[in-house]
Predict the structure.
Amino acid sequence: MTKTVNNRAWFFVLPVFALVAFSAVLPLMTVVNYSVQDTFGNNQFFWNGIGWFQELLDPSTELGGRFFDALWRTLLFSAIILMIEVPLGIAVALAMPREGWTVALCLVLMALPLLIPWNVVGTIWQVFARGDIGLLGWTVNQLGIDYNYTNDPIDAWVTIIVMDVWHWTSLVALLCYAGLKSIPDAYYQAARIDGASRWAIFRTIQLPKMRRVLLIAVLLRFMDSFMIYTEPFVITGGGPGNATTFLSIDLVKLALGQFDLGKAAAMSLVYNLIILAICWVFYTVMTNVDAERERVEA
Amino acid sequence: MPDLAWMAWTWQTGLFFAGIACLLLIMTLLAIYRPETEHVGVLRIPTTRGDRLFISLLGAAFIHLAWLGLVGPGLWWASGLSLLYAAAVFRYV
Protein backbone atom coordinates (compact mmCIF):
# COMPACT_ATOMS: atom_id res chain seq x y z
CA MET A 1 0.00 0.00 0.00
CA THR A 2 1.36 3.41 -0.86
CA LYS A 3 0.94 6.22 1.59
CA THR A 4 -0.33 9.51 0.22
CA VAL A 5 1.89 12.37 1.20
CA ASN A 6 0.12 15.68 1.06
CA ASN A 7 2.43 18.57 1.75
CA ARG A 8 -0.37 21.09 1.54
CA ALA A 9 -1.00 20.38 5.21
CA TRP A 10 2.09 22.43 6.01
CA PHE A 11 0.30 25.59 4.86
CA PHE A 12 -2.27 25.08 7.59
CA VAL A 13 0.47 24.92 10.19
CA LEU A 14 2.15 28.12 8.97
CA PRO A 15 -0.03 30.53 11.01
CA VAL A 16 0.94 28.66 14.18
CA PHE A 17 4.62 28.92 13.27
CA ALA A 18 4.23 32.66 12.71
CA LEU A 19 2.37 33.08 16.00
CA VAL A 20 4.93 31.11 17.99
CA ALA A 21 7.76 33.00 16.29
CA PHE A 22 6.35 36.35 17.40
CA SER A 23 5.16 35.33 20.85
CA ALA A 24 7.94 32.97 21.92
CA VAL A 25 10.95 32.65 19.63
CA LEU A 26 11.71 36.34 19.03
CA PRO A 27 11.36 37.33 22.71
CA LEU A 28 13.53 34.36 23.71
CA MET A 29 16.19 35.39 21.19
CA THR A 30 16.10 38.90 22.64
CA VAL A 31 16.60 37.50 26.12
CA VAL A 32 19.66 35.60 24.88
CA ASN A 33 20.97 38.84 23.35
CA TYR A 34 20.39 40.76 26.59
CA SER A 35 22.04 38.06 28.71
CA VAL A 36 25.46 38.73 27.21
CA GLN A 37 25.21 42.52 27.42
CA ASP A 38 24.76 45.30 29.94
CA THR A 39 22.61 48.37 29.56
CA PHE A 40 22.41 51.71 31.32
CA GLY A 41 19.13 52.64 29.67
CA ASN A 42 18.37 54.53 26.47
CA ASN A 43 18.47 51.19 24.63
CA GLN A 44 22.27 51.25 24.56
CA PHE A 45 23.96 47.92 25.16
CA PHE A 46 27.53 47.00 26.03
CA TRP A 47 29.10 43.57 25.52
CA ASN A 48 29.61 41.62 28.73
CA GLY A 49 30.17 38.10 27.38
CA ILE A 50 29.58 35.37 29.94
CA GLY A 51 30.01 37.82 32.82
CA TRP A 52 26.43 37.65 34.09
CA PHE A 53 26.34 33.86 33.93
CA GLN A 54 29.62 33.68 35.83
CA GLU A 55 28.24 35.97 38.53
CA LEU A 56 24.92 34.12 38.59
CA LEU A 57 26.49 30.71 39.16
CA ASP A 58 28.86 31.90 41.89
CA PRO A 59 26.98 31.84 45.22
CA SER A 60 29.52 34.19 46.80
CA THR A 61 28.43 37.12 44.62
CA GLU A 62 25.33 39.21 45.30
CA LEU A 63 23.56 38.00 42.16
CA GLY A 64 24.56 34.34 42.63
CA GLY A 65 23.60 34.40 46.30
CA ARG A 66 20.10 35.65 45.69
CA PHE A 67 19.66 33.35 42.68
CA PHE A 68 20.54 30.18 44.59
CA ASP A 69 18.52 31.28 47.64
CA ALA A 70 15.46 31.89 45.46
CA LEU A 71 16.03 28.63 43.57
CA TRP A 72 16.15 26.52 46.75
CA ARG A 73 13.11 28.35 48.09
CA THR A 74 11.17 27.64 44.89
CA LEU A 75 12.20 23.97 44.80
CA LEU A 76 11.29 23.55 48.47
CA PHE A 77 7.92 25.19 47.83
CA SER A 78 7.20 22.92 44.84
CA ALA A 79 8.23 19.83 46.82
CA ILE A 80 5.97 20.74 49.76
CA ILE A 81 3.07 21.52 47.42
CA LEU A 82 3.40 18.18 45.61
CA MET A 83 3.75 16.24 48.86
CA ILE A 84 0.55 17.76 50.23
CA GLU A 85 -1.66 18.20 47.18
CA VAL A 86 -1.15 14.85 45.44
CA PRO A 87 -2.03 12.52 48.37
CA LEU A 88 -4.77 14.91 49.51
CA GLY A 89 -6.20 15.11 45.96
CA ILE A 90 -6.27 11.30 45.72
CA ALA A 91 -7.96 11.05 49.12
CA VAL A 92 -10.60 13.60 48.14
CA ALA A 93 -11.23 11.85 44.82
CA LEU A 94 -11.67 8.51 46.62
CA ALA A 95 -14.11 10.07 49.07
CA MET A 96 -16.23 11.73 46.37
CA PRO A 97 -19.61 10.11 45.58
CA ARG A 98 -19.87 8.02 42.39
CA GLU A 99 -23.55 8.55 41.62
CA GLY A 100 -26.59 10.58 42.58
CA TRP A 101 -27.20 14.32 42.75
CA THR A 102 -24.27 14.82 45.13
CA VAL A 103 -21.85 14.18 42.25
CA ALA A 104 -22.82 17.41 40.50
CA LEU A 105 -22.74 19.34 43.77
CA CYS A 106 -19.26 18.00 44.60
CA LEU A 107 -17.92 18.76 41.13
CA VAL A 108 -19.20 22.35 41.22
CA LEU A 109 -17.84 22.92 44.72
CA MET A 110 -14.47 21.46 43.72
CA ALA A 111 -14.30 23.55 40.56
CA LEU A 112 -15.04 26.84 42.35
CA PRO A 113 -11.52 27.65 43.60
CA LEU A 114 -10.12 26.87 40.15
CA LEU A 115 -12.26 29.60 38.61
CA ILE A 116 -10.95 32.42 40.78
CA PRO A 117 -8.18 34.56 39.25
CA TRP A 118 -4.81 34.34 40.97
CA ASN A 119 -4.65 37.93 42.15
CA VAL A 120 -8.14 37.62 43.65
CA VAL A 121 -7.06 34.46 45.49
CA GLY A 122 -4.06 36.40 46.78
CA THR A 123 -6.22 39.28 47.96
CA ILE A 124 -8.76 36.97 49.60
CA TRP A 125 -6.03 35.25 51.60
CA GLN A 126 -4.22 38.46 52.36
CA VAL A 127 -7.32 39.77 54.10
CA PHE A 128 -8.44 36.37 55.46
CA ALA A 129 -5.11 35.76 57.19
CA ARG A 130 -4.68 39.22 58.72
CA GLY A 131 -4.41 39.19 62.48
CA ASP A 132 -6.58 42.27 63.07
CA ILE A 133 -9.52 41.98 60.64
CA GLY A 134 -9.05 38.57 58.96
CA LEU A 135 -11.21 35.70 60.13
CA LEU A 136 -8.39 33.13 59.98
CA GLY A 137 -5.66 35.31 61.45
CA TRP A 138 -7.88 36.66 64.20
CA THR A 139 -9.19 33.19 65.17
CA VAL A 140 -5.71 31.66 65.28
CA ASN A 141 -4.48 34.53 67.44
CA GLN A 142 -7.48 34.15 69.75
CA LEU A 143 -6.55 30.47 70.20
CA GLY A 144 -3.32 31.68 71.76
CA ILE A 145 -1.07 30.94 68.77
CA ASP A 146 1.12 33.86 67.80
CA TYR A 147 0.48 34.20 64.09
CA ASN A 148 1.48 37.12 61.87
CA TYR A 149 2.43 36.45 58.28
CA THR A 150 3.83 39.93 57.74
CA ASN A 151 6.75 39.55 60.11
CA ASP A 152 7.25 35.82 60.69
CA PRO A 153 8.80 33.83 57.79
CA ILE A 154 7.27 30.50 58.93
CA ASP A 155 3.81 32.07 59.18
CA ALA A 156 4.25 33.57 55.70
CA TRP A 157 5.20 30.16 54.27
CA VAL A 158 2.32 28.42 56.03
CA THR A 159 -0.11 31.03 54.69
CA ILE A 160 1.09 30.67 51.10
CA ILE A 161 1.15 26.87 51.26
CA VAL A 162 -2.35 26.64 52.77
CA MET A 163 -3.58 29.09 50.15
CA ASP A 164 -2.09 27.04 47.32
CA VAL A 165 -3.52 23.83 48.77
CA TRP A 166 -6.95 25.48 48.96
CA HIS A 167 -6.62 26.81 45.40
CA TRP A 168 -5.24 23.78 43.57
CA THR A 169 -5.92 20.52 45.42
CA SER A 170 -9.28 20.31 43.67
CA LEU A 171 -7.50 20.17 40.30
CA VAL A 172 -5.63 17.04 41.42
CA ALA A 173 -8.85 15.66 42.91
CA LEU A 174 -10.86 16.26 39.73
CA LEU A 175 -8.18 14.64 37.56
CA CYS A 176 -8.02 11.62 39.87
CA TYR A 177 -11.80 11.44 39.95
CA ALA A 178 -11.84 11.29 36.14
CA GLY A 179 -9.31 8.45 36.33
CA LEU A 180 -11.42 6.60 38.92
CA LYS A 181 -14.61 6.99 36.88
CA SER A 182 -12.96 5.23 33.94
CA ILE A 183 -12.58 1.98 35.92
CA PRO A 184 -15.30 -0.49 34.86
CA ASP A 185 -17.45 -2.00 37.64
CA ALA A 186 -16.33 -5.48 36.66
CA TYR A 187 -12.91 -4.80 38.22
CA TYR A 188 -14.50 -4.05 41.60
CA GLN A 189 -16.81 -7.06 41.35
CA ALA A 190 -13.85 -9.33 40.63
CA ALA A 191 -11.98 -7.83 43.58
CA ARG A 192 -14.98 -8.39 45.86
CA ILE A 193 -15.26 -12.03 44.78
CA ASP A 194 -11.56 -12.46 45.58
CA GLY A 195 -12.17 -10.91 48.99
CA ALA A 196 -9.72 -8.06 48.36
CA SER A 197 -9.28 -5.51 51.13
CA ARG A 198 -9.89 -1.77 50.59
CA TRP A 199 -6.13 -1.19 50.52
CA ALA A 200 -5.59 -4.02 47.99
CA ILE A 201 -8.25 -2.55 45.69
CA PHE A 202 -6.59 0.86 45.90
CA ARG A 203 -3.09 -0.49 45.28
CA THR A 204 -3.84 -2.92 42.46
CA ILE A 205 -6.85 -1.41 40.67
CA GLN A 206 -7.34 2.26 41.43
CA LEU A 207 -3.75 3.49 41.62
CA PRO A 208 -2.59 1.86 38.35
CA LYS A 209 -5.68 3.20 36.57
CA MET A 210 -4.96 6.68 37.89
CA ARG A 211 -1.30 6.60 36.90
CA ARG A 212 -1.66 8.65 33.74
CA VAL A 213 -3.85 11.37 35.22
CA LEU A 214 -1.62 11.46 38.29
CA LEU A 215 1.43 12.11 36.11
CA ILE A 216 -0.41 14.94 34.40
CA ALA A 217 -1.50 16.29 37.79
CA VAL A 218 2.06 16.16 39.14
CA LEU A 219 3.41 17.85 36.00
CA LEU A 220 0.78 20.61 36.10
CA ARG A 221 1.16 21.22 39.83
CA PHE A 222 4.95 21.20 39.59
CA MET A 223 5.01 23.70 36.73
CA ASP A 224 2.45 25.97 38.36
CA SER A 225 4.14 25.96 41.75
CA PHE A 226 7.60 26.40 40.21
CA MET A 227 6.48 29.55 38.41
CA ILE A 228 4.22 30.87 41.20
CA TYR A 229 4.21 34.64 41.20
CA THR A 230 0.91 36.43 41.69
CA GLU A 231 -0.26 35.02 45.02
CA PRO A 232 2.95 35.48 47.05
CA PHE A 233 3.40 38.86 45.38
CA VAL A 234 -0.05 39.96 46.56
CA ILE A 235 0.10 38.32 50.01
CA THR A 236 3.66 38.93 51.16
CA GLY A 237 5.40 40.79 48.34
CA GLY A 238 8.27 38.32 48.77
CA GLY A 239 8.70 39.11 52.44
CA PRO A 240 9.20 39.19 55.36
CA GLY A 241 12.76 40.01 54.31
CA ASN A 242 13.27 37.68 51.40
CA ALA A 243 11.55 34.69 53.02
CA THR A 244 9.01 34.15 50.24
CA THR A 245 10.96 35.64 47.35
CA PHE A 246 10.62 32.85 44.82
CA LEU A 247 12.53 32.81 41.52
CA SER A 248 9.78 34.54 39.57
CA ILE A 249 9.44 37.32 42.13
CA ASP A 250 13.21 37.81 42.26
CA LEU A 251 13.32 37.92 38.48
CA VAL A 252 10.72 40.67 38.30
CA LYS A 253 12.51 42.64 41.04
CA LEU A 254 15.73 42.33 39.03
CA ALA A 255 14.27 43.12 35.60
CA LEU A 256 11.57 45.67 36.34
CA GLY A 257 12.56 46.92 39.79
CA GLN A 258 16.27 47.45 39.22
CA PHE A 259 16.10 47.36 35.42
CA ASP A 260 19.17 45.10 35.32
CA LEU A 261 18.21 43.55 31.99
CA GLY A 262 21.46 41.62 31.52
CA LYS A 263 21.37 39.94 34.94
CA ALA A 264 17.64 39.26 34.67
CA ALA A 265 18.08 37.76 31.19
CA ALA A 266 20.84 35.43 32.40
CA MET A 267 18.72 34.39 35.37
CA SER A 268 15.63 33.76 33.28
CA LEU A 269 17.61 31.65 30.80
CA VAL A 270 18.89 29.39 33.57
CA TYR A 271 15.37 29.28 35.07
CA ASN A 272 14.03 28.37 31.63
CA LEU A 273 16.61 25.60 31.16
CA ILE A 274 15.74 24.04 34.52
CA ILE A 275 12.04 24.02 33.62
CA LEU A 276 12.79 22.63 30.16
CA ALA A 277 14.86 19.77 31.60
CA ILE A 278 12.27 18.86 34.23
CA CYS A 279 9.39 19.01 31.74
CA TRP A 280 11.33 16.83 29.30
CA VAL A 281 11.82 14.20 32.00
CA PHE A 282 8.12 14.31 32.93
CA TYR A 283 7.01 14.21 29.31
CA THR A 284 9.30 11.30 28.48
CA VAL A 285 8.14 9.32 31.48
CA MET A 286 4.50 10.10 30.67
CA THR A 287 4.64 9.08 27.02
CA ASN A 288 6.68 5.95 27.76
CA VAL A 289 4.45 4.78 30.58
CA ASP A 290 1.65 4.78 28.02
CA ALA A 291 3.69 3.04 25.35
CA GLU A 292 4.81 0.43 27.88
CA ARG A 293 1.21 -0.25 28.93
CA GLU A 294 0.06 -0.56 25.33
CA ARG A 295 2.85 -3.05 24.71
CA VAL A 296 1.86 -5.06 27.78
CA GLU A 297 -1.84 -5.00 26.88
CA ALA A 298 -1.18 -5.94 23.24
CA MET B 1 12.76 45.56 6.64
CA PRO B 2 11.52 45.83 10.24
CA ASP B 3 13.73 47.60 12.72
CA LEU B 4 15.31 44.94 14.94
CA ALA B 5 17.57 47.26 16.93
CA TRP B 6 15.49 46.66 20.08
CA MET B 7 16.65 43.05 20.03
CA ALA B 8 20.21 44.28 20.67
CA TRP B 9 21.87 41.81 18.32
CA THR B 10 25.56 41.02 18.57
CA TRP B 11 27.47 38.95 16.05
CA GLN B 12 28.16 36.31 18.69
CA THR B 13 24.50 35.66 19.44
CA GLY B 14 23.78 35.90 15.70
CA LEU B 15 26.34 33.17 15.08
CA PHE B 16 24.83 31.06 17.88
CA PHE B 17 21.31 31.25 16.43
CA ALA B 18 22.60 30.72 12.89
CA GLY B 19 24.22 27.53 14.19
CA ILE B 20 20.95 26.32 15.70
CA ALA B 21 19.07 27.24 12.51
CA CYS B 22 21.62 25.28 10.43
CA LEU B 23 21.19 22.26 12.71
CA LEU B 24 17.41 22.41 12.29
CA LEU B 25 17.79 22.76 8.51
CA ILE B 26 20.12 19.76 8.38
CA MET B 27 17.68 17.73 10.47
CA THR B 28 14.81 18.69 8.14
CA LEU B 29 16.78 17.73 5.05
CA LEU B 30 17.85 14.46 6.67
CA ALA B 31 14.23 13.74 7.60
CA ILE B 32 13.23 14.24 3.94
CA TYR B 33 16.07 12.42 2.21
CA ARG B 34 17.09 9.85 4.82
CA PRO B 35 13.92 8.96 6.75
CA GLU B 36 14.60 6.98 9.91
CA THR B 37 12.88 4.83 12.47
CA GLU B 38 13.03 5.30 16.21
CA HIS B 39 15.58 3.29 18.09
CA VAL B 40 15.95 2.28 21.71
CA GLY B 41 19.26 2.92 23.46
CA VAL B 42 20.66 3.02 26.98
CA LEU B 43 17.79 5.18 28.27
CA ARG B 44 15.39 2.39 27.18
CA ILE B 45 13.14 4.90 25.45
CA PRO B 46 12.53 5.13 21.70
CA THR B 47 14.27 8.22 20.31
CA THR B 48 14.47 9.85 16.90
CA ARG B 49 17.32 11.98 15.58
CA GLY B 50 15.38 15.07 16.68
CA ASP B 51 15.04 13.72 20.23
CA ARG B 52 18.75 13.01 20.36
CA LEU B 53 19.55 16.53 19.08
CA PHE B 54 17.30 17.98 21.77
CA ILE B 55 18.97 15.89 24.50
CA SER B 56 22.39 16.91 23.17
CA LEU B 57 21.57 20.64 23.08
CA LEU B 58 19.92 20.64 26.51
CA GLY B 59 22.81 18.65 27.94
CA ALA B 60 25.31 20.99 26.28
CA ALA B 61 23.64 23.99 27.95
CA PHE B 62 23.92 22.33 31.36
CA ILE B 63 27.52 21.24 30.73
CA HIS B 64 28.45 24.86 29.96
CA LEU B 65 26.63 26.15 33.03
CA ALA B 66 28.16 23.48 35.27
CA TRP B 67 31.64 24.24 33.90
CA LEU B 68 31.12 27.95 34.53
CA GLY B 69 29.87 27.33 38.07
CA LEU B 70 32.28 24.60 39.15
CA VAL B 71 35.47 25.16 37.15
CA GLY B 72 35.40 28.75 35.90
CA PRO B 73 35.70 30.49 32.52
CA GLY B 74 37.51 28.74 29.67
CA LEU B 75 34.33 27.52 28.07
CA TRP B 76 36.12 25.93 25.11
CA TRP B 77 36.71 22.90 27.31
CA ALA B 78 33.00 22.78 28.09
CA SER B 79 32.23 23.04 24.38
CA GLY B 80 34.60 20.17 23.64
CA LEU B 81 32.99 18.13 26.39
CA SER B 82 29.55 18.95 24.95
CA LEU B 83 30.60 17.70 21.53
CA LEU B 84 31.81 14.44 23.07
CA TYR B 85 28.53 14.22 25.00
CA ALA B 86 26.51 14.86 21.81
CA ALA B 87 28.47 12.17 19.97
CA ALA B 88 27.78 9.74 22.81
CA VAL B 89 24.08 10.66 22.82
CA PHE B 90 23.79 10.10 19.06
CA ARG B 91 25.65 6.81 19.35
CA TYR B 92 24.15 5.23 22.47
CA VAL B 93 20.78 6.88 23.34
